[in-house]
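re: that chain from earlier
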Amino acid sequence: MKNEHADFVLSKAIGVFSNDFSKSNRGKQPLFEEYHKTGDINIFKYGYSMPWGKNDMIHLKGILNTYLSFLKPIIVRIYNTCYIPIKRSYNRRWTQYTRTGKIALCCIAKMENDYIRFFVEYYKNLHFDKIFIYDNNDPDGERFEDVINDYIQSGFVSIIDFRGRKVAQLPAYQDCYDKYNKEYDWIAFFDCDEFLTFNDDINDIHKFLSKYKFLPYQLMHINWKTYGDNDLLDNDGRNVIERFVEPLPNNTKMYYCDRLENTQIKSIVRGGLTYVKWIQTPHTPKCIDYHCCNPLGESVNTNSPFQNYDFSVAYIRHYSTKTIGEWVRNKMKRGIPDRSVESWKETHNLELFFKYNRRTDEKQLYAERILKDELE
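^ sequence. v structure.
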């Protein structure tokens, strides 16, 4: 298939082994290029085996561009919806975010001077390194410095001024995490009537949270074990753990729905997370792409304030009502920090107390006497 030419040999395909032409045609590059333009000769670098013409290459390029323009959005969508979340989830699942060796507790409190010292000492005995108390008392109300000033001066307790603020629990939790999450490996978000309890002999929050089975998780949800009044009338000076020894039955339902009371949880959150938002419930923050477990090390729903209860490893003693006297003087008067005054006044009344506790004439009369004294 070769044609003789005065200056060189023409061929339908001439292999060129480098940027220079072969020895036999060296120096004749301009003539090669001229014939190449006319289509009489095709010049290819080494490694191409098929003699494609210029028009063939243009046609192939058009076909490839058509297919690529069709496939590109599909590939991008698969990458964004599948690969990136899987990679992000895997990376976060196995990352330790802070390594300070310290664990803190955050709470918001109002009218808790009768109970706060025992609360602080209890968590100090569990080897927490710090307690942040957001003081939500009225501007002219009681002050925590009057009862736990020694712990404040030692640095174990920090008081943050949230006095007089309404519906302040979620903002307090958010403020605490935003400011201090880089300083602590974990931060527990509990109320002053909640006491973390272990079912083994550890009694050390550091040893508990350092277990290998918790390594892949950024949050832990721990169930309530709720306690009623144990048929006591009022505070007799003993701490809540000594006074209330019998929990409510496990089939006790919440007052506003058919869920079981003890399916509710509270959270311990790992420090150093980039997206933790307290926006819906004080039971757990809103987290994206983070993983949550229970005390057994089993994966649970990160954003749900409920989970099947299990007390075999750890649980939170929740003294939600205490006695009828304390309910009337404290809970009915102060309300709850995650709701408006109008909201809690509609629900937190004597009828709610007796949904959880046995109604007796003695309790009813005692409550009415306190309410009468309050009005006078």
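The chain is about 35% helix and 20% strand.
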